[in-house]
Each structure stands twice: as structure tokens, then as C-alpha cells.
Amino acid sequence: MSAIGNTLYQQFGAIRRWRLLMVSAMAVGVLVMLCLDLWAGPAGLAFSDIVTGLIDPQQLELRHRIILWDVRLPDALIALAVGAALGLAGVETQTILDNPLASPFTLGVSSAAVLGASLAIVVVPVVPFFAEAAVLPMMALLFALGSGVLILMIVRWSNGARETVVLFGIALVFLCNALTAGLQYIASAEAVQQIVFWTIGNLTRAGWPEVAMVGACFVCVLPFSLRHVWVMTLLRGGEAHARSMGINVARLRLWVILRVSLLAAFAVCFVGAIGFIGLVGPHIARLMLGEDHRMLVPGSALCGALILSCASFLSKALIPGVIIPVGILTAVVGVPVFLGLLSGRRRMA
Amino acid sequence: MTRFTARGISAFYGRKHVLDRVDLPNLTDNQVLGLLGPNASGKSTLMRCLSGEKATEGKITIDGTSRSEMGHDGWHHRLASMPQTPPNPSALLPTELMWSTARALGFDISDQELGCQIEDIFKRLGLAEVALSPLHTLSGGKRQLVGLALALMRDPDVLLLDEPTSALDLHWRMVVLDLVRERLAERGGVVIAALHDLDLAARYCDRIVLLHRGKIIASGTPSEVLTPANLARVYRVETRVTSDEDGRPIVHVIRPLRDFEPA
Lengths: 349, 263
Description:
The complex is a heterodimer.
Chain A: H1 8-39, H2 47-55, H3 62-96, H4 109-123, H5 132-157, H6 162-186, H7 189-200, H8 208-227, H9 229-235, H10 239-244, H11 249-271, H12 277-289, H13 293-317, H14 326-348
Helix pairs in contact in A: 1-3, 1-13, 3-8, 3-11, 3-12, 3-13, 4-5, 4-6, 4-7, 4-11, 5-6, 5-11, 8-11, 12-13, 12-14, 13-14
Chain B: E1 3-13, E2 16-22, E3 27-28, E4 32-36, H1 43-51, E5 57-62, E6 65-66, H2 67-70, H3 72-78, E7 79-82, H4 94-104, H5 111-124, H6 140-153, E8 158-162, H7 170-187, E9 190-194, H8 198-204, E10 207-212, E11 215-220, H9 222-225, H10 228-235, E12 237-243, E13 249-256
Helix pairs in contact in B: 4-6, 5-6
């Protein structure tokens, strides 16, 4: 890529335009995947019915309308919202902790959510003014947010030392896992099965309110992430350089981890601990788009949404009549894509 | 016209006193100050104190105004420092690093102007060929040059360089320091560089400060500071110092001194 007759500005512009094209292609991919996800399922709706039903619901017969709008659309949209939230949270965690293995799950947020959910399943607390079905996600959310608060306290206390934050996060994972195991030990066989089922991750529990909550969380957080794209990009050059420019890395770390905790807490509390997307979504985006966070941040959210949507489609399409829990499939879908990109990159290098 | 002063600089790591009331000579336009000293003598800490990154006792001023009077942004507008570690070997492109730095720091110029400015700096530092290659494909020396490019792009009045040439080969060491000198002649300003290489220091610095265990052992012109006695005391080596045709000292290291030999 040497400069021959072209200014650096022009060459850099060409790279950026190519990346913008890739991001647009990802967005189109997400839309296509959404339609496929809506189409898959046992009711035998034709693909054209789905498109017509989305544009003009009145044209569908009532039965199909209910299936499309009240069952499939919330499931498909929560896949996008959760995937996007985890993709965004993942890329921000990896950059702010300068650790390619980090994800919102490394911070203990999802383990805490599992602990909260397990407690709800085993103890079955009765909370006034709350429907029984809402108690479980609420407990998961509270525990996830609680772990976020703990992490934030650690970030403040350690003045943003990233090793301390990662170590504390991992310690928190072990603690939550141990407590969950303790609950399982005393729980009935049925409750254990429920916990396991919740932990695997499942999209079919979601309705419109859940879609709205996760979507709103993502939409509220995204502008703050976009506001920090420049400084996050330069942070990829190393903390020492960012500090030398007068950037307060400790304060930045506090803000980013606050955002990440919120995203991860809302993402996992309704659908269970769908791991892996927050880890691999950003890496796939990075392999395709590079490190410029102007592209990487939206790209990572789109990648997350795409992987989870694809997994959701496969969960219904693989074995007709059976819905495989989507948490099992995210890794099955994501790993080959990731390995393919990685080996492609090796060959090019 | 830039004046830079630093008086009574003390710094601690926990309870450990790492800098003890260090006074730097006052610097005015076009001057290069070299900080010399063995490992752990406090050079890097002093650099971090001067840039405002590490809390310190003492008074540091640019044109008579301290950092607290000038404000955080104002201070970093006039002073840029290049840390010892080169930029991380990530997949980031050098151009992206420069670009995002300019935008994160709120440079008020158009994209096209910024592109030209980055290209110009890269050409001067021999980085034009790798401007769009990921940092992890670059050698340590090239990455160090990218680090220098980051500091130069900010066009500061006070430029702090922490071992700017440690990863560079002979050719690029001289190119870099020539460039720093040229830049001073063009636009004025002062440079403070922590260096390991005594001959480079003698060649490029107007003033030298010799640090040892957080204290100043000697301060003055290169020929005043680079004496066999000072070098034996600080570096524990036996040396012979001659001078070149311009009167600059040349240090010939003969052998390390053993612990029991008087320094």
C-alpha cells in the first residue's frame, strides 16, 4: 500500500470508504437475517407472507398475524437487541481493558445474572406489585447491576488499574458460580433443570416489553459510545500515549465500564447467559474493519446482532418442529466464521 | 519566545522518595536539555512530573505560568511528551492513530489539511511507506518513530522526549535528533530529552543534567558535565573524555568499575 501518485489523505479515504461499505453490508445482512429468522418456524408461513405481514399486517389472516407480530417478531428483535448490546459491550471492554480475552462476561456481570436468576428459581420470592414471571428477570437484572456497581467501585479504588479490574472480574465470576452451585446443591431436580435451561440462554421468553427495554438501553448507551470513538481509537495505541496527551484514562475507564455493565445486565437478564457474542462479535468486526472505532463500534454491534440472529434462525430451522436453545448455537455459528476469518487473515499476511 | 522552568521537583512512589528537590536549569527558546543517568535514576519519573502526568511538589512553569494557572487543556496545548514505550503493536494503522489523536484533542482543521499534515510528518520520519500498515507489522524502531510523530503533530512549544532513540539504529537516531534540532530552528520552543547515549547527548544538547538516585549530580554544558569523575560516580564506569574539532566531548568507555573501587 505504498504511496504512488496518491496522497495519504486519498488512500486513507479509500480505506475508510471500503470499511463503510462493509458496515453497510453488515447492516443489510442483519435485515436479511431478520427476515429469515421471522420466516423460520413450524407455522408454515411463506416468505412472501412475512414481507407482506410486516408492511401491511391487515393483509394476513388473524392467526398468522398473531404468530408474526406477537411471537416471532419479539423473539427476532430481542435477538438483534441482545446481540447488538453484547457486541457493543464486548468491543468497549476489550479496548478499555486492552485485553483481547475480555468481554462483559469477564467482568462477572453474566455470572451475577445467573446467580440472581437461580435465586429467583430456587427461592421463588413473592414481590408485591410484581407478576411472578417478572420476578426472575428482575432478580437477574438486580444482581447483574450489583456486580456492575462492585466493578465500578474497584475501578475507582484501584484508580483504573486494568489488571486489578480483570482479576477482580474473574474472582467475581468464580464467586457467583460457587454460590449458584450451592443453590443448585440444595434445589429440587426440577429447579436445577430450570436453572440449567436459563443459563444456556433462550430467546423465546421475550415479549414486546423486554424488546423495548433492551432496545432502549442500547439506544441510550450508543451515543455515549460514539462520542468516545476518537479517544478509544487512540487508546489502541497504548495507555502511556493516551496519558501523555493529558487524557484521563482512569475516568474514561469508569465511564466505559458503567456503560458496559448496563448493556450486559439488560442483555442477559431476559434471555439468559448467552456468552461468546461479546467476545467474538468484536473480534470478527475487528478482522473485517480494523481498529478505527468509528467503524468498529457500529460494526461490532452489527456483528453481534448478526451472529445471534443467525443462531436464532438456525435454532428453529435445523430440526423442524424443535427449538434448540440459542445459547448452544451461538458458539456453533460463531466459531467457524471466526476461524475462517482468522485463517484468511493469516494467508494474506 | 518560550521559557520553561522547573524548581524543587520532588516525587514519591508510595513512601519512596524518587525525586528529591530537583532544579532544572531555566530553558529559553531553541535550547535542548538532556537528562542523563543510569537506570532507576528518576529520569522517566521526572519526565512524567514535567508533563503533569504525575503529581509533584515544586513549581513548573511555561512562560511564568504554572499548570494549575494555565488549566489542563492549555498546558497540554503547549507541552507534548513522548513516552518511553512505543505505541502498542495492535492492528491500528499509524495514520488512524494520528488521525484519532488529532480529533480526540480537538484539532480545528479540515480532514484534508490533517491528511497533509500527517503525511508531511510521516515523510520527515521515513514512515510514509508504512503509514497504512498495521502497527503490529512494524519494527519496534518504526513504532517508536510513530510515537515521536504523535508528539510532533501536536506542534508543542515544550517537547519532552523520554528515550526517543532507544529502539532506533544509528542512522535513525541521528535523523531524529537532527529533525528535533531543525524544528527548533524553524519554530522555536524547548526540548527536554531523557537519553541513554552519552555521545548523542554531547552532540545534540545545549545543557545536560546528570541524575543519580533522584538527585542532580551535575548540571551545565556537555563538557562541564561529562567528566570522568562524574561518569564514574553515576554510571560506575572508567572513561576517558576527549573532544572533537567543535570542542564537544567524546566519551570513551574503558571498563566497568567494581563495587569496591572508589568512584
